[in-house]
Amino acid sequence: MQSAPTAQAKQDKGSPIILRDGEVHFTPLVHQVDAAARRLGVSRRTFYALVKEGRLHTFRIGGRVVVAETELQRVVAEAMRKAA
């Protein structure tokens, strides 16, 4: 009999995990535009302005515009450095 995952589950640097309801959920590697904008806390318009300014890099997968999670983190880190 297998036991349910616990909060002490191993976490790989490249694969962040979230334990919820006894299940393991991986953080997505990429986000579609709406989800990425929500994650940054900005509107779609602001999201696309960041892309147009060259401050945020997107690419296409299966015809959909996506942005990497690491790219979102980079943009936030850059904004924090500028604010300091």
TrEMBL record:
SUPFAM superfamilies: Putative DNA-binding domain. It comes from the Bacteria. InterPro entries: DNA-bd_dom_put_sf, HTH_17, SinI_DNA-bd. Residues 33-78 form the Helix-turn-helix domain. This is Helix-turn-helix domain-containing protein.
